[in-house]
Every structure is written in C-alpha cells, then in structure tokens.
Amino acid sequence: MIRTALLVFKKDLRIEMRSRVLLWQVLPFGVMALLLCGIALGPSHAGNSSAGPGLFYLVTLLVALLMINRSQSVEKTPGTKASVATLGLDPAGVFLGKSLALATELWVTGIILLGGSVVILHTSLHGAILALPSVVVTLAALAVAGTLYGALTSGGDGAATLLPVLALPAFAPLLIAGERSFSAALNHGGIWRWWLILSVALSVYTAIGILLYGVLEES
Amino acid sequence: MKQLSQRLFGPLTLIAMGATLALGLWVVPPDQVQGELGRLVYIHPSVAWVALYVSFGTSAIASALYLWKRTRSEVMDRVAYCAMEVSVVFIALTLITGSIWGRPAWGVWWVWDARLTSSAILGVLALGYLALRRANDDVQLRARRSAVFAVLVAINVPIIHFSVQWWKTLHQGATVFTSNRTLLIHGSQAWTLLISFIAFTMLFFWLLRYRYRLEVQRENLAGASLEEALASRRREGTQ
Questions:
Q1: pLDDT in tens, B209-235
Q2: Does A164 touch chain B (CB under 8 A)?
Q3: Which neighbouring-strand residues pair with B188?
Q4: Phi-psi region at B107: left, alpha or beta (left = phi > 0; alpha = psi -120 to 50)
Q5: How many domains does chain A have?
Q6: B72 partner at 20 to 30 Å CA-CA among A211, B61, B143, B224?
Q7: Closest to A170 (Cβ–Cβ): which among B127, B131, B152?
C-alpha cells in the first residue's frame, strides 16, 4: 500500500511540475481572490479586520476545489483507469498517494496565501507562524476529504458543479476549526484543542478513504 | 397477518399524530415560563429526532449494508435513497419549527448558532445526496457512490448532537434528559412528548414505506418503457 501510495504521489506531482497548472492558474486565482477580499472589506477595514483568518480559509477552500477537480481530471485521460485496473494497484494506496500529492500542493499554496494575507490583509506575521501547525493539519484534512469527494463526483453529469455542492458543506466544520485555531493563534489563545479536533477529522477521513476508495473505483 | 399489520400501520400513525396534536394543543397546560409557545416542544424535538437520528440512521445503515458485499442488494440502495429523501422533508420541518420558536424566544428567525448551522449544513448535504443520485445514470455506480456519500454524511450527526455541549451557543442543551440520565420533564408533558416521538417516528416509517413502493414502481415503469422502446425498434426493423 505504501509503495503504491508513493508511486501515485510521485506521478501526480510529476504531472503538476510538467503542466505547471498550480503555478500559472491556481496560485494567481488565489492571490486575486485574496485581493478581492480586501476590496470587499474596503480600505479602512482590510488592514485591521479580524476577518483575516476566515478569509484566508475561504480563499484556500476555493483554491482547494480547483485543485481537487484538477487531481481527478488527470485520472480521466484515456487508458489511465484501464492501466490502474490492469496493474492491480491497491485502491487504498492510490487514495493515500493522491491525498498526499494534493496535500503537498495545498501546503505550498497555503504558505503563499498565508504570506499574501500578511501583506494584503495585514494579518500578524507572528500569529501566522504560530498558526502554521493547525494550517498544515487543516489542509491535510481538506486534501484527504477532497480526494474522497473528488472521486465521488468524477465522471458524472456536471462533475465540476456537483463537487462544490457536496464538498463545501462537508468542508464547513474543517473551515470553522481552522479559522478558530488561526484566530486563537493571533490572539495568543490555545490552538491545541482545535489542532486535536482537526487531527481527529484527518484520521476519520483517512480511515474512511482507505476503507471505501476501492468501492468508488470498482467497475 | 403481514398485510393486516401493513394496513393497520397507516391508521395507527394517524391516531398517534392526532393524539399528539390533541394532547399538545388542548390537554397539557401551557408552560410556566414560555406560555403557549412552549407547546412547540411537542413537535420540534420529535421532528428533529426523526430528521437527525431516525432518517439519517436508516440511510447510513442501509448504505453501510449496501457497501458490505455480503448484504449488497438493490433493496438497501432503495431504502437508503428513500430515507434520505424523506429526511430532507424532516430537516426542513426542523429548521422551520425551530425558526417559529426562535422568533418570539430569541427575537430572530435565524441565528449563527452551532446547532442551527450544523443542522442547516446537514440539510444541504442531504440535498447534495439527491443531486449525486441524479448525476449518475449507471445504476451500480450511482448506488456505490451514494452509499459512500451517505456514510460520509453520517459523520455530521454526532457533531450536531454534541454541538450544544462543545460550543455552548444560543440553542439550549439537553431538554428531556440531563447528562446523568435524569428526566427533566414530568407528568402530562413527559407523556405527550413520548407520544409525539413515537408518532413522528411512525410517520417517518409510513412515508418511507410509500416512498419505497413508489420507487419500485418508477423503476418498473422505466424498465417497461425500455422494453417497449426495444420492441418498437424491432417491429420497425421487420417491417
């Protein structure tokens, strides 16, 4: 399972490095969305608003949706599914590999957006650094849940529009916990309670994914 | 015997619903603190009980049984789908009756309370389940994906249940029992509440049964239409 996971992880990252979709499409979209958040708040509020953590996660969520769609679309190229079936790859390994690749992409995006929120929304740099452990776990949970939801919606009618309908309500608890932990870090509160909740969510989604990803890939 | 019990189930449900209404509206005295508004306690908690636990529980259990290869069958898939569809009605009723109570009690129709928000999210997830079913034409694929989604959705039920303890926002905590299992409601109020829980649970299973029959008929009709279309094409070919 670990071998398959590493194989899929490397494959997905290699595709991303060659296509550069993350660099040229997803990241500019994320930065633009952060700028729009600042514009929506207005010049007098954007600099001293307590909405920074919430807006950071909102933008990250939108970016994550694009990346989940992208992660699933690379599996749809002709022959990919047949190759996976012929090779007899462990579905749990495929799930873990795809989740890890998506999490890596989200971590890179998250760090850049975190820097963006420090510059654009004037979020405290010290608070943002303190929030990093919870951001890492939140994005990992988003990646694992996103891989599951991506597989649920891929290939059906209107998959691109169905994904947000199914995934956004499910991501809401992660968004709330992530935002609370970020706010706690900014206000020097305890982030470990939220970190623990997020870790439990990550473990639950990983367990469900390992158990059920194979069912989704059955033909 | 089976047919008799099936025939009696509907009238019994109606009797239980009628008893809930009569007891809740006329027999039980108004609440000491909330007055007539307190009578909503005979509807809202029972509707929420069905919406959160009975219907989602039925759907999640049927979905889990579908995912387990030994018990995989179309029946499980249909039960999960029909239960989820009925649950949408009950979640809507939970939010509506909650809002009717919230306006005079809290002064607003809606508040960003943990219980309310998490219940609304569950409602959107249930609608998402119905959207997912409509997005796939392949029957097997649709059933598998829906079953996985129903199991994922069920994770939210404990979050909603414990939300009043974890976040301590506006929605009140446990109303019927304390955390030490001590009964908080007594006398005619307790009996009426118990009857309302039974009545709404019966109503759910009654609706589920009819929705299930409707689904079987719809599938038969779709199958018959396909057979008819194929026969028509064959006739055209021989002419």
A1: 999 999 998 888 887 777 777 787 777
A2: no
A3: none
A4: left
A5: 1
A6: B224
A7: B152
